[in-house]
Specification:
By secondary structure, the protein is mainly alpha-helical. It has helices at about 35-65, 85-90, 95-125, 130-145, 145-155, 165-170, 170-175, 185-210, 215-225, 230-240, 240-255, 260-265, 275-285, 290-320; strands at about 10-15, 20-25, 25-30. Helix 5 (about 145-155) crosses helix 12.
Length: about 325
């Protein structure tokens, strides 16, 4: 009897369920035509939404960034102006570089102040203190609130005459009132304090979940070797938490780059609170309707955002190999 070769025609064999399973090149294909249709729907529908809601707007923004289109009427070849929008942003737009620096300050604040405080709270709560659940709930409560609500809350706290902060500092009685949100040299840092109130709880919960997964024998071994709690965390626990550290770094970078809500609520992102995301809105949705300029700022923000995203994906791919 001749042995089947790779060129042998496909044949079907009945299964216990009465369905036909195709056998081609000596392999069984257990997916029926119905299964393939279901699989196509399961993959196709999310992919369609991804293209419509993410990739299409992204591609449109890149295209519009090379035009002077005002959002009214059809987009014609006469609207294409090349790199003039980018040239104007880098050399002639007085609000661009201050907004860029404010985003950098936002990122530095969250990275070196808010995030370490959140990690510290997670380490303290990981020690199973009395009332641990209550502390976790209190610190996590601001995360449940949107940044718009957080902005309203802190706007009341920073009120020059009736706010809690000025009254607690006693500056109202002394007459030296501090206008935290009206002073362009102070309002950015006042908003960063409000943002940190929410960000700290978010980081605390993520890091606390990671600390619960650390092998207790590692800490016991470090204690046997004579390491104190600080040395154990820095030399044993922190390196083991490398995947969580990368996630937190990416989250912190994204939070800083997409900052918008709280600054816009205070004063529409003006008078010292300019951010790249707010410039996109103010240029695209304004009386002048500078859609092309707003799209150019959006593309620049997209390119900056790709940095932490690519770093995160590279880290994930290395660990999965």
């Amino acid at each position: 009897m001749a042995r089947p070769t790779s060129a042998s025609p496909a044949r079907t064999e009945p299964t216990e369920a009465g369905e036909l399973v195709a056998r081609t090149h000596g392999r069984f294909h257990v997916l029926t035509r119905y299964d393939r249709r279901v699989l196509m729907l399961m993959v196709g529908i999310p992919l369609l939404f991804d293209v419509i809601l993410i990739w299409w707007p992204t591609a449109s923004s890149i295209l519009l960034s090379f035009t002077d289109w005002d959002g009214i009427g059809d987009l014609t070849p006469q609207n294409f102006i090349g790199l003039k929008n980018y040239q104007f942003l880098f050399t002639g737009y007085t609000l661009f570089w201050p907004a860029f620096m404010h985003n950098v300050i936002w990122l530095a604040w969250l990275t070196f102040i808010a995030t370490p405080i959140g990690i510290l709270f997670a380490v303290l709560l990981d020690r199973e203190l009395r009332g641990n659940r209550i502390y976790q709930s209190v610190f996590f409560l601001p995360v449940v609130l949107s940044l718009v609500v957080v902005g309203f809350i802190w706007e009341l706290q920073f009120n020059p005459t009736e706010g809690f902060i000025n009254n607690a500092l006693g500056v109202v009685k002394s007459g030296h009132i501090i206008d935290w949100l009206g002073n362009p040299h102070l309002n950015l840092y006042a908003i960063l304090i409000a943002t940190s109130w929410r960000h700290i709880g978010y980081i605390m919960v993520i890091y606390l979940a990671g600390l619960k997964s650390v092998d207790p024998t590692l800490r016991e071994a470090a204690k046997v070797d004579g390491a104190n709690e600080v040395q154990t965390f820095l030399r044993v626990v922190f390196p083991v938490m490398a995947p969580i550290n990368v996630v937190i770094a990416v989250i912190t970078a994204i939070e800083a780059l997409r900052a918008f809500d709280i600054a816009f609520i205070i004063n529409q992102g003006k008078n010292g609170l300019e951010l790249l995301s707010i410039l996109i809105t103010n240029n695209s949705i304004s009386e002048a309707s500078l859609v092309g300029r707003g799209s150019a700022i959006a593309v620049i923000l997209l390119v900056i955002s790709l940095g932490p995203i690519i770093a995160f994906l590279a880290r994930v791919m290395r660990t999965s190999q």
